[in-house]
Amino acid sequence: MKTVNIIVQFNVIKYWAIVITARISEKWTIKFINGIIEFDFKLFLFNSSFPVELYSIILVTSLYYLSNLGYRFCELNRLWKCLPFGLIALPGGLTNSEITILVERIRLLHAELSELLRLFSLGYGPILLIYFTFTFSNALLETFLITIYNDSKEYSLLPFIFYLQHIFHMTSILYITSWVIEKKKKIISYLRLVRISEMTVHTKLQIKMFMQQISVYEPNEFTAFGFFNFDLKLTMSILVLLISGISTMLQMKDHPLMLYLKNSLKERNRDVN
Question: Superkingdom, according to UniProt (predicted)?
Answer without folding.
Answer: Eukaryota
